[in-house]
Design a protein that fits this description.
The complex is a heterotrimer of chains A (93), B (224) and C (113). With 93 residues, chain A is mainly beta. Chain A has two helices and five strands. Chain B contains eleven helices and four strands; from the N terminus they run αααααββααααββαα. Classes of the chains: A mainly beta (93), B alpha/beta (224), C mainly alpha (113). At the B-C interface, helix 1, helix 2, helix 7 and helix 8 of B face helix 1, helix 2, helix 4, helix 5 and helix 6 of C.
Chain lengths: 93, 224, 113
């Protein structure tokens, strides 16, 4: 099972913690941080379900394409699981 | 050129004078004699409403400010210096930086801290593009530039250019890892221990570790 | 906002005014007592729009966000806030004159020398 994930491209209005610049990008899971309250509910004063939070690592090439200063530099961010879809494993050994 | 003042140690809860300077070493901004602004009025009003309603007290507000003032980059520097001299502590710090910081007696509260380590092949730098999250409980107040749009928008796309503006020019065989603290984690960089520091004590090592090096826009200083 | 074009990173590193530290303290206290979360703070900051980066300072945006969150949490009403702000403004013209609580136990003026 590949640990590569793609960030959703959805763009709802309002408070989400997934940065625009990472939408649609593919990265690998660096570590699983456990479950945290969904900020999309907490931000509106609602009782929050806990949802898994993952650190995801992207290459600068993946995020910025030819605009990257160095394609192998890395960008790592915390993304909630409901924003991530597993990418089936062309990379799986 | 962005700069970082030498940090002096803050012994927690020991009253001390800064000769008219605030704990960070800068003069206090003069706000007492300036005309009241709308937003300052709002701050006063919210605070007094909460006190009037028994939600908080004047003492609690002052204590909270004192707590914030008592935290400084010197705290983080102690943690980094310990990691430099004690490999087992370094391993614990990398595994669970919150627990390791608490081990050293720092009251970091509910902060979920992740420590990332610089090597001669990897350089880490921290940002919060979505707001300005910062490990305040261990490093104190974030610098202005960290909170401003220029840093937050540019460092995730052109970290090398931004670091050059801070005087840090990294070769291509060093990989940069930019950490965007988008959710509940907060980050601290363990800068690389400088050459020539082998004989220094842990306290002397801590003096080499600046706030900016723990954000990732500078290296630790070399020993004199 | 990651990746947007922006200007040079400004090196200025000012220290904080007392009112700004009080804003930070309000955030810590109100969130620790469960009135709102840092997510709510962020949400209101975002909803305020990018123009406010030009028109308001960091702490002005923060106090506006804290206020919005507290109103939504029902900590106080808009009428109470309005009345209080009028009363505060009537105390004088400077921050120092207006920041004195009605029943001080500790003199604010000693704190920031």
């Amino acid at each position: 099972m590949s640990d590569r994930v793609r960030v959703s491209t959805m763009i709802p209005p309002g408070h989400v913690r997934t940065p625009y610049y990472l939408r649609g990008k593919v990265g690998e899971i660096e570590r699983n941080l456990g479950a945290f309250g969904n900020p999309e509910q907490l931000a509106y004063g609602l009782a929050a379900e806990t949802t898994p939070l993952l650190r995801v690592r992207f290459t600068m090439q993946e995020v910025w394409g030819s605009a990257a200063e160095n394609p192998n530099d890395l960008l790592e961010a915390e993304i909630f699981a409901h924003w991530l879809t597993p990418v089936e494993g062309s990379d799986a050994p | 050129m962005p700069h970082d003042h030498p940090d002096h140690n803050h012994d927690n809860n020991v009253p001390h004078s800064h000769d008219g300077l605030s704990p960070s070493g800068h003069p206090y901004r003069q706000d007492q004699d300036q005309p009241l602004t709308y937003w300052q009025n709002m701050e006063i009003s919210i605070r007094e409403l909460l006190i009037d309603k028994g939600i908080t007290t004047e003492l609690e507000v002052m204590h909270t400010i004192d707590q914030m003032d008592s935290r400084s980059p010197a705290d983080g520097a102690k943690v980094v210096a310990r990691a430099w001299v004690d490999p087992a502590f370094r391993a614990r710090l990398l595994a669970d930086a919150s627990a390791a910081s608490r081990e050293m007696g720092f009251d970091i509260g509910a902060l979920k801290l992740i420590a990332v380590e610089n090597t001669d092949r990897v350089h880490n730098v921290i940002v919060c593009t979505l707001c300005s999250c910062y490990p305040r409980n261990l490093l104190g107040f974030p610098p202005d530039w960290y909170k401003q749009r220029a840093y937050r928008s540019r460092v995730v796309k052109t970290p090398r250019a931004v670091l050059r503006e801070f005087g840090l020019d990294l070769p291509d065989d060093v990989t940069i890892r930019v950490h965007d603290s988008t959710a509940d984690m907060r980050y601290i960089v363990i800068p690389a221990r400088p050459a020539g520091s082998e004989t220094l004590s842990e306290a002397e090592l801590a003096e080499l570790i600046s706030r900016d090096s723990m954000i990732g826009v500078a290296r630790a200083q070399s020993p004199a | 906002m990651g990746g947007r074009d922006a200007g040079a990173v400004l090196p200025d590193d000012h220290d904080f005014a007392l009112w700004e530290k009080r804003v930070d303290a309000l955030m810590v206290i109100a969130s620790s007592k469960g009135y709102f979360t840092v997510d709510g703070l962020r949400r209101v900051l975002e909803d305020m729009g990018e123009d406010t980066y030009e028109t308001m300072t960091y702490y002005e945006r923060w106090v506006a966000s804290i206020n919005q969150n507290m109103v939504e949490a029902g900590a106080y009403s808009l009428a109470e806030l309005g009345a209080k702000m009028e009363a505060v403004a009537a105390r004088g013209s400077t921050y120092g004159e207006c920041a004195t609580h009605e029943t001080p136990n500790i003199c604010d003026g000693d704190r920031d020398v």
